[in-house]
Structures are given as structure tokens and as C-alpha cells.
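Example record

One chain of 178 residues, shown exactly as stored in the release files.
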Amino acid sequence: MTEPLSVAGLLTEKDVRKLTRLARGGTVGPTAVYYAGVTAPIISASMSVLIRNAMIMVGASPYWQWLVAALVAAFAGIAWYLIFIRWSYRHSHGRGTETSLETRIDLEDDGVVIRRGGIETRAAWPSVSDVAVSGGYVTVQLVGAAPLIIPSKWFGKNKAARQAFVARLKEKALPDGP
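Predicted C-alpha cells for this chain:
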């Protein structure tokens, strides 16, 4: 039985943004991309019909009817797509208590235990697939869960505690994941 190692601290808004970037592939969610991709062609087609009918009413030749309708339809679809994507940007990062409640991380014999307020999450050692140290953070990749970040500032000036913590994580983590 090894001695449990622990670290605790508050995540800052900057920490939560970094964690969000690790967990998400982009700033726009898949639902927004889907709806923008589905609605933009509908908007284009609708504008094409509307403009062509208007061009017929003003007596334009068939060439100008199709050309102007196609141009307006293309620009309407592109404009809608860009507007929809812009409206859909995710602006908030993290969950409600990530910056207001202390997070405690314990390395125990059977795995990693993360506690924040009344929530406790356990990850068995086989689910720890990667541990990386860079940019003032220790990043722990978990199979089937969001990554975990541990800001170096949580260790204060105790570099030995940080090194021991990272060494234990790396020792227990599977080299290539499960």
C-alpha cells in the first residue's frame, strides 16, 4: 500500500478555458454546424425562387433571371451560414462550481479520486491513458471522461511534491492507453 498523494486548489477562469480547449474540438458545437449546414441550403433555395419570380415580374430575360437568382441564392446561403455559426459560438467555459469550489485530487492505490464540493469522481488506474506536463499544468487524459488539469500553482513552491505527484501518475498510467 503506497502513501496517497493529494493536491487541492481553485481553478481560475484561465484554467477552465484551458480545460475546455482540451475537452472540446472547437468553439462551435456539432448541433450548430448541423443546423447551419441544413438551413443554409434551404435559405439559398428559397431566395433563388423568390428572386427568379421577381425577375420574371420585371420582365428580365431568362439569362438574367437565372444569373441574378443564382448569385443572390449563393450569397444568402453563405451569409446565413456565417451568421448562424457566429451566433452559435460557445462563450461560456466550464460548469458552475469549477471556479468557486476547491478541487481536491487524491492518488490512491486503486486510482485517481477527484472531489469538488459534494461530488466525487473515481477513475481506476487503467483509465489513465496519458500524463503530460507543460505550460504550468499537469494534464491527465482519462479514457471515457473529460481530461483533468492540475495547475502547478496548486503545489505552491514545493517542486518535490509536484514531481512526486507527476511521477506517481506516470508510473500508474498505461503507456498507450487501454
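Notes: The domain at 5-24+96-172 is CATH 2.30.29 (PH-domain like).
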